[in-house]
Amino acid sequence: MSTIERPSPGVLCRTARPDADELAALLAEAFHDDPLTRWIVPDPRRRAALLPGLFRVFVDVSHDYGGVSVSPCGDAVMLFLPPGASEEVDARGDELADRFAAALGDHAEALATIVRLQAEHHPAGPAHYYASFAAVRASRRRHGLLSGLLRELVERADREGYGAYAEASSPGGEAVSRRLGFVPCGDVISLPDNGPSLRPLWRDPR
After folding, report:
1. Rounded (10°) angle between helices 44-64 and 93-104
2. Could you tell me if 154 and 203 are in contact, meaning their C-beta atoms sit under 8 angstroms apart?
3. With the C-alpha atoms ordered 125, 129, 133, 139, is the resulting torsion angle positive or negative?
4. Cα–Cα dist 43/181, whole Å
5. Under a CB-based contact definition with an 8 Å cutoff, are residues 160 and 179 in contact?
6. H runs (alpha helix) in the chain
7. What b/e sequence results for 148-169 when a residue is b if at least 16 CB atoms lie within 10 Å of its CB, and e otherwise?
């Protein structure tokens, strides 16, 4: 039985559990042109077809640990893991590899490379919140929705005395994180074959 404490919904969460397929579609739309997903699935049409299934896995895993925050309008979502949950997710490696393979087919190997590199760079301690994915609907960007969700997460971490960790795949995501007190930590995660990079970020509790 898990000993992870599931966070209670915050002020930016709906009281009803959002539809997982809707959230996966929102994430897929937002990440369609992200450097990471383009590296995983180079063909844009194939990428559009596969990303909803991939993000459905991430949504389900985050739901397992109470790690889904959604704006009241439903146009922004953040996936995260509470302290201790990353280790539980790592222990589910075989299960998740099968689900990723079912979602991505031949492209699952590229995702596995990213997951491996992330695991190698992930801080071993102290215990922390891990903000894994965030997305805002295109028509609602630049309205502060992403900042609001991330602010809620770091305020929760502060109240509980935990740090927070994230990996930025775009300058915009890094800028939002740094405005809320995240700073670069460790080496940049560079993907092989001249692939894109991820910038690890850390925030101490305040």
Report:
1. 150
2. yes
3. negative
4. 36
5. no
6. 20-30, 35-40, 44-64, 85-91, 93-104, 108-121, 145-160, 171-179
7. bbbbbbbebbbeeebbbbbbbb
| Residues forming beta bridges with residue 163, ordered by sequence position | 128
Q: Measured between alpha carbons, how far is 76 from 140 in angstroms, rounded to an integer?
A: 8
CA 187 to chain centre: 19
Q: How many other CB atoms are there within 10 angstroms of residue 113's CB atom?
A: 16
What are the pLDDT digits (tens) for 64-111? 999 999 988 888 999 999 999 999 998 998 999 999 999 999 999 999
Cβ count near 176 (within 10 Å)? 20
Reported as a pLDDT band with limits 50, 70 and 90, residue 17 is low
Return the structure tokens found at 188.
Answer: 């940049």
**Structural domain spans, the chain:** 20-203
Beta-carbon count within 10 A of 28 CB: 21
CATH architecture of 20-203: 3-Layer(aba) Sandwich (3.40)
**pLDDT tens per residue across span 162-178:** 999 999 988 888 999 99
Stated length of the chain: 206
Helix (H, G, I), strand (E, B) or coil at 14: coil
Distance from C-alpha of 206 to C-alpha of 204, rounded to nearest angstrom: 6
What is the pTM (predicted TM-score) of this model?
0.88
User: With contact defined as beta carbons under 8 Å apart, do 167 and 118 qualify?
Assistant: yes
